[in-house]
Design brief:
The chain is α+β, with helices and mostly antiparallel strands and about 400 residues long. It has helices at about 1-15, 25-30, 30-35, 40-45, 50-55, 60, 160-170, 180-185, 220-230, 240-250, 260-265, 270-275, 280-285, and strands spanning about 105, 115-120, 125, 145-150, 150-155, 235, 315-325, 335, 350, 365-370, 395, 400. The relative contact order is 0.16.
Length: about 400
């Protein structure tokens, strides 16, 4: 009752004293806001009293659209294959030919889809954060001198146009035992088996096209790379954590690749509580909590870092190939070349933060990891999907391509 009374008083205050035109209605209709104001008592009696505590769920987790802003919503599998939004009438018949270590545009054969790859010269950098860096966490150290070899990296995250092209080429209509699917793909087949249709619309209604593809699992992202390698004749993969941080830093040794003190940029600090967070520079480069309107944005929303890469920080969390371990950095020497992380593990590294993150969690050294069980809580399938997450939105990936041995690197 006290919680309901508090919410009621807040509503009254807002009705009489706040400017309704200033409300971010798009953000307020999202699940992240709804869970703060919806009460479960009447639902729990009939439905899921035990699961509410065991899974930390609210009714709104499964029924965001029922009787709310979209009463015609039907929770079921997506039907059909989304069409790429590109206006190009060109159908590419062959992938790009790469003979030099320089930026190139890749073509996906038998489609009108292209994407840009940035040549990232190898080098040595300090990976991790110093102990005095604001908001540093223990898993960001100790700082190591890491050398990475040259590689190509996607200018931006993999877009919906690119991912739906993969989906259309490889999709699995029926439910197949996940173990059978993974065993098939592990044997380097001529035809890769791809995702089953997701439940609902995974773009969250924000739009497809050039926006980053989201909600796919780490396995789904890895399978995309496997498929892309086959259709282009190159070796595409997810970046290692070391490659990701090297590309994000773009030669910097500061918390961000642009000037900025995390204490001044974060909303969490004492100063920011009084004067507000400094958004003047970070908003030029990062899609995050204070400028995203609660959703992902297209690449043109921000400027690139000095390497020519966009959205390395913010917009969507990005998968790395490494398994996650809190003490991973301490398991190697202080000088290491091309580290690939632990040899085994349960979860994978994710980097970069997303559109909902505070600036303190977008630092170049900040680490995260997948939470597979939590991110599949409301997936109605048994066994759970290996392709799509049901309980996280802002996660995607970008690809890395290894230079062919014939490519001259100067």
């Amino acid at each position: 009752m006290l919680i309901k009374a508090k919410t009621g008083l807040t509503d009254l205050y807002g009705f009489y004293f706040k400017n309704k035109a200033s409300f971010d209605w798009e953000n307020k209709r999202l699940l992240e806001h709804a869970v703060k104001i919806v009460y479960n008592e009447s639902c729990i009696r009939c439905h899921y009293e035990n699961n509410a505590k065991k899974l930390n769920l609210q009714c709104i987790n499964c029924h965001l659209d029922v009787g709310h802003y979209n009463p015609n919503y039907k929770h079921g599998k997506m039907t059909g294959v989304p069409v790429a939004s590109t206006s190009s009438k060109i159908l590419y018949t062959a992938p790009a030919t790469v003979t030099a270590f320089e930026n190139f545009k890749e073509f996906i054969p038998n489609s009108p889809i292209t994407f840009s790859m940035i040549a990232v010269k190898g080098g040595t950098f300090k990976m991790g954060s110093p102990e005095k860096e604001p908001y540093r966490k223990n898993d960001e150290g100790p700082v190591r001198n890491v050398t990475v070899s040259p590689f190509f990296m996607g200018e931006v995250e993999v877009s919906w146009d690119e991912f739906w092209t993969f989906f259309a080429s490889t999709m699995s209509e029926g439910r197949v035992d996940p173990n059978i699917v993974m065993a098939h793909n592990a044997n380097s087949p001529d035809a890769v088996t791809g995702p089953t249709p997701p439940f609902g619309i995974p773009d969250q209604g924000w739009g497809s096209g050039k926006r980053p593809a989201i909600t796919m699992t780490h396995y789904s992202a890895s399978t995309y790379c496997q498929w892309l390698s086959k259709v282009t004749g190159k070796h595409y993969r997810l970046p290692t954590e070391a490659e990701w941080e090297y590309a994000c830093r773009a030669g910097s040794e500061t918390p961000y690749f642009f000037p900025g003190d995390p204490k001044r940029l974060s909303e969490q600090g004492f100063r920011s509580k009084i004067f507000g967070a400094d958004t003047s520079l970070i908003s030029r480069y990062v899609v995050y909590a204070l400028n995203s309107s609660g959703k992902t944005q297209e690449p043109g929303f921000v400027k690139a870092n000095p390497f020519g890469l966009k959205n390395m920080q913010g917009n969507v969390l990005e998968y790395c190939s490494d398994f996650y371990a809190e003490d991973a950095y301490s398991k190697t020497g202080t000088t290491v070349a091309n580290p690939k992380g632990p040899g085994s593990g349960e979860e994978h590294v994710i980097r970069g933060g997303n559109y909902s993150f505070d600036a303190k969690d977008l630092r170049s050294a900040a680490r995260g990891f997948t939470r597979t069980a939590d991110w599949l809580k409301t997936d109605p399938q048994q066994p759970k999907s290996i392709w799509w997450y049901s309980d996280i939105k802002g996660i995607g990936f970008r690809v890395v391509c290894d230079p062919d041995s014939s490519v001259v690197i100067k």
